[in-house]
Amino acid sequence: MTQVDFYILPDNSDESRLNLACRLADKAVQRKLGVFLLAETETDARRLDELLWTFSQNSFLPHRYAWDLAAAPAEEPIIIGCRERAGPETIDDAAGAAWDLMINLANEVPATFGRYERLAEVVDAEPTRRDSGRTRYRYYRDRGYELKTHQL
């Protein structure tokens, strides 16, 4: 069963939320894990793309958009998708089996989160996102998922 971790940020900064997602992805890649970053919007997905090039002075995290997977199989350890354009459901079962961690920045429970060993939910203090985070927490809790909360 998927382990679900909630990372709770004290502020409502988009930059903090996206930077945390990049830090989580970086740690996963160092452990040789595959990552799916799920953004709510294409704008956030593109911002994640930029941050993965620049968020750390000493590293670049190889990644690709989910909507580019039709051109060639994924070799990159990080795939970025979004609800507006291409989410995790666009990855076929063979590619999806390679991903160990989903990082959810979207406002809903991802339809395919159960195929991942771990799900990281990033929640900040913006009222709408905080409320949707609480709703997702109840969803996972009510279905018996192991939940961990990390107050940052």
Order of helices and strands: EHEHEEHEEHE
Based on Cα principal axes, name the global outline. Answer: globular
Strand order of the largest sheet: 3-4-2-5-6-1-7
CATH superfamily membership, which one? DNA polymerase III subunit chi
Task: Please compute the radius of gyration using only Cα atoms.
Answer: 14 Å
User: For the record, what CATH class applies?
Assistant: Alpha Beta
CATH topology, anyone? Rossmann fold
- Poorly predicted tracts of residues: 92-97
Approximate strand percentage: 15-25%
Q: How many domain units?
A: 1
Describe the structure.
By secondary structure, this protein is α/β, with parallel strands linked by helices. The protein has one domain: Rossmann fold. The chain contains 4 helices and 7 strands; from the N terminus they run βαβαββαββαβ. It has helices spanning 14-30, 42-54, 93-96, 127-142, and strands at 3-8, 35-39, 63-65, 78-82, 101-104, 118-123, 147-151. A 7-stranded parallel sheet has the order 3-4-2-5-6-1-7, sandwiched between helices. Helix 1 (14-30) packs across helix 2. It starts with a strand and ends with a strand. Residues 92-97 have low confidence and may be disordered.
What keywords describe this structure?
single chain; 152 residues; alpha/beta; Rossmann fold; 4 helices; 22% strand; globular
Q: In brief, what are we looking at here?
A:
With 152 residues, the chain is an alpha/beta fold. It has helices at 14-30, 42-54, 93-96, 127-142, and strands spanning 3-8, 35-39, 63-65, 78-82, 101-104, 118-123, 147-151.
